[in-house]
Predict the 3D structure of the following.
Amino acid sequence: MIEFVLNGRAEAIDQADPNQSILEWLRTKKRLTGTKEGCGSGDCGACTVITGAPDKNGQIRYEAINSCIALIGSLQGKHLLTIEAFRGQPAHPVQQSLMDCHGAQCGFCTPGIVMSLIALHSESAPDADDHKLMEALAGNLCRCTGYRPILEAGRQALVQSWQPGSESHPARYLASANNADGLATTDDTSISSLEALNGHHYYAPATLPQLKRLLRAHPDARLIAGGTDLVLEITQQLKALPRLISLERVRELNGSQLEENRLVIGAATPYRQLHRQLSGLWPAFDHLLERLGSLQVRNRGTLGGNIANASPIGDMPPALIALDATLVLDGPEGARELPVEQFFKGYRQTDLKPGEFIYSIHIPLPEPGQRLFIYKVSKRLDDDISAVLGAFRLTLKNGVVQDCRLAYGGMAATPARARLTEAALLGKPWSQRSVEHAIKALGNDFSPLTDVRASSTYRLQVAGNLLHRALLENSELHHRDTPLMVTDYA
Ligand SMILES: Cc1cc2nc3c(=O)[nH]c(=O)nc-3n(C[C@H](O)[C@H](O)[C@H](O)COP(=O)(O)OP(=O)(O)OC[C@H]3O[C@@H](n4cnc5c(N)ncnc54)[C@H](O)[C@@H]3O)c2cc1C
Ligand code: FES
Ligand code: FES
């Protein structure tokens, strides 16, 4: 049984296909067709809805998500708001401003744009600046390219307040101080589950012992965290995933905390929740996390999912390898710790044994003289996967390279260190000459592929350029007040 609140009304579902997306359920079962399907892969934002789940203080935190790549089982204990919650009068300031500014251009993108802006409005109005506005809209594609009036409408709406027209307004909880009141009462420590007539199952345990029990009972089950990679197997490859175990509610896997010399992040913590803490320690993450997918993707996607997915162009693994981060893996044989670098065994192959899962990620805190540079190169600035990503942790003393870890994504079948290039830099002055000399070793470290994102020659050239860029940014002579994240266009 899963229980949640849809547009202010309680819902309980015990039999449904666990592979069904929220979008499909809304449109086919509830006939709520205001939410549109554009791509079905999390890229366009047409399907954006708002979900609300309690934060640590019991307050509901509302965020925009892509309903095409979120499964219905993920709704347990949440509020779900669709565009239909905002029909009727008075219009939400976002809707009114879109009308006033001629920002409502087509019926396909507009519902998603409205929902993204309402999520931003509920979280940040009236303090949201243009940066936040762009961030909120970066995951909503308008195919007619009419962004100017949409942005203008966003600016106008964000300075206005909103009150629901009546006490029974379907979105009343958005504006209520006691916004957890409407949530279905569930025993928070019970396993929520869905079963289909064809025997397919979705389990959402709430505790670690429950998770381990389920994994023992169902060794064939696939783990799902945010689902932003896994659900594409359903929507794009048309696979059926008969048994899913969700990590989303497992308390022990959620949240992050500072320990003596490291930050410990639960594997199922969504990016959105760890952004501030991580970039507070290592500022280079700030820009990386703004460019990883869209806000909708970051609201669901997790660090553990990114690592376990083992894509050679996943954004976080090179940065974690550069930082010498470690993983705690847990499973039938107990827990073990492994450097992230040793986790990747081949193209999309990992060191995970049957029944094992990533429990947490340990990121060392900065030491004196250490600096981290992360550069993502993609064809498009927002919501695009890397062609090449370079992450470099340097320890300099008196201008000499005492230690360096240079990790790249997109250069090999796995994220990997450029060990020969590192060796060429160690003990050398951090200078133009040493960097130019070291860059020559990159061709021996890597033989990158040519694919749709970039050619092999381009990848090698840009990998060297990124190291050069780190030199320029670190040099006092060239020091400029620019972000540590840059985009080049392939
Ligand atoms: C539109 C879009 C844009 C994207 N842009 C980017 C991008 O710019 N950069 C980038 O790196 N990625 C990007 N992604 C990919 C994806 O969002 C990330 O990889 C995300 O971190 C995956 O996390 P998740 O929780 O959604 O994983 P899920 O989809 O839930 O799981 C992914 C895989 O990991 C396994 N898994 C999950 N958690 C664990 C665990 N704790 N232990 C063991 N196995 C586990 C699952 O079984 C599955 O095989 C994008 C995805 C979409 C849809
Ligand atoms: S339909 Fe395009 S993001 Fe969901
Ligand atoms: S609003 Fe739909 S294409 Fe521009």
